[in-house]
Amino acid sequence: MRTALIVGAGVAGLTAATALARAGWRVEVAEVGASGATAGWGLCLTGPSLRALAELGLADACLAEGHGMSVITHVDVRGEHADQTELPRLIGARRPAMAGIARPVLHRILYTEAERCGVVVRHGLTVTSIDQETELVRARLSDGTGRQAALVVGADGVRSDVRGLLGLRASPDYHGQMVWRALVRRPSWGTGIHQFAGKDNTAGLVPISDSRAYVFLTENRAERNVLPDAELAPRLRRLLEPFPGRGAALAPLVSESESVVRRPVLTNFLQGDWNRGSGVVIGDAAHAPAPQMASGAALAIEDGLVLARELERHESVGAGLKAFVSRRAQRCRTLVETSVAIAGLEREQRHEEAYPLAGACHRLMAEPV
Description:
Order of helices and strands: EHEEHHEEEEHEEEEEHEEEEHHEEEEHHH
CATH architecture of one domain: 3-Layer(bba) Sandwich
Low-confidence stretches: none
């Protein structure tokens, strides 16, 4: 039988699990986290995300529970309108170009569909060893049990353990930026994404439902450290206070929030092969962009679909994985490199150069997968 073991029940892992199960694979997912646990408060489903989700029949559910939008408004350091990016509408001219959505909501939608397709998700487990055999992979899990599968997929994030177990080497790069997120009530003017250029940092607002949004701030030249939870909200408010105009309205919103996270901006692109034998890495384990392009979820969802398609088209798993990597590598590299370039422009306060670069990359990502 076609059996697959997927490590990681995030966006990439659950999408791949559903796509493979629909193609007739028997799929098991090992997830180290507890059931229902998700990291972060919200994300953007860009046009490519919605297009891929529509293929799975899940775009409508995401739009119903998220917040559809089509425009990114850029505001300069004086608080004045600087630029507006109209994003490509890939699922119909009368439908939104993208959607903001709460991470727990997206996780529930993907998880429910995976289980409906017969995927078995086991929590509190990860993989500790992988041994390649002639046509099968033998994996040992952290509870001491073993698995034998025709395919092992590492969808375990930018710090992927599976990547190392497969003998693939990558070192995530830190770009001197820490990114903040705070879950807030959505102000009446927050109907689309707003991005505010500051004298030191960049901030913005992304609506994720009719009543909620998240505030983001990219802190430049930041020390990569961990702050006590009690210091997060007060420090984020202080970082937001210098912004003029509507940017200044973000600090009071954060004052009401008890949900603030701070993470380093890490990127990664796995040079060369993403697979060894019948094992492969996808999503952030293979290509983690900076958040400036808001497209990490798009690449992860596309990966899951394309992986299932190529395995269906080829007689052997090895040939299918080789075709998958060949098909995905350049697209993912372009997105990662563009996101890194935009992060650099933000650090140098060259926002007027970053806006058209981001717009051009969104148009490029709108091309068929």
